[in-house]
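fyi for ur records
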Amino acid sequence: MIKQVQGNYNPSALEKSVQALWAETEAYKKTKELRASGPDFYFVDGPPYTTGYIHLGTAMNKTIKDMIVRFKRMQKFNVSDTPGYDMHGLPIEVKVEKSIGVKNKKEIEAYGIDRFVSTCKNFALDFQKQMNADFKELGVWFDWEKPYLTIAPNYIEAAWWTLRRAYDKGLLISASRVLPGCPRCETALAEAEIDYWDEKDPSIYVKFRLKDDPKVSLLIWTTTPWTLPANLAVAAHPDFEYVKVRYRKVGVTETIIIMKGLEEEIRNLGGWEKYDVLQTIQGDDLVGVEYITPFVDDVPYQTQATGKWLHKVLPSKTVEASNTGLVHIAPGHGPEDFELGKEFGLEPFCPVDETGVYTPLVGSKYVGMHIKKANPDLIKDLEEKDRLFFSGTIEHRFGHCWRCK
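which gave:
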């Protein structure tokens, strides 16, 4: 019997009546039993972090998943519908840190590691129960009584079992990589975890004097002066043409090597009155040219390191036709630099710890300084060493940890 439509729509009352009907008729249970003999359809629920109450994004996500599961059941599939929750990791830790008023790992150690872990676990379990109830209230038909929880021992043991199986099959290797990191969280960052926004940084042009002719310099550009103590090579594009140029202004003469076509742009940087192109050089012919790295006298590693290509020009087709056409390479500070260094046998050198502070490897002059705060001192020292060609600032997009905005 069809009832007359009421004049007022009350969604809350309607939801409760539908939920009551489903509970009374055991609709979910009977639907699963009805499809138990059908072909299997495996639906894997990508788990949300239990970092708080559900929001529009998580609600929409589960609603779409519910539509897919219901549709497959209508097609007579026996659907696996185990929901999941991601219940460990930095997103939860950061929430707990804020709630207990700690700001870094040292403060966590003072708070007590076991105590902190227990607090995180309770936080995650509390919100798992809350989210479970919220999703059920949305009408999502999943097996809410048996969700998988990533903090459960059986889940963790399954992950270790899988890792061991991969190891036994020879699928795991031990190697080094360079990854972006967050100095506050003291952890590596995946590309998806990096947020970008505009910020102001140094924009400097630095002279790398040739070993055989110190009056001539390779000119490089960088926005990260703090990486210069770890410089091990310079990259040039083998297919580009470069020029040796003599710039002059009252009382000053500089001879530098840059990419052909950038002469006027470089002239405008330092207010040079005139310049002369002394020689055109093919990029291939620069390969192997040896130079003196700017901080050779300050960083002990720079005189201790060995290698056929140490402090030499390397060929790389990743070099862009901009700035100077020459790139300073620090294999310990960037993925592209690391790969190029690996290709030419340069061991990565990284005198920076997880908190973004220089370690003793950098030498006594900069040890203990935060890398970003060290930039002004490094620039000043470059100027005193007569290695600074031009210094300015640039506003550009720079990556940051999404948790630490």
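The mean pLDDT is 93. thats all i got for now
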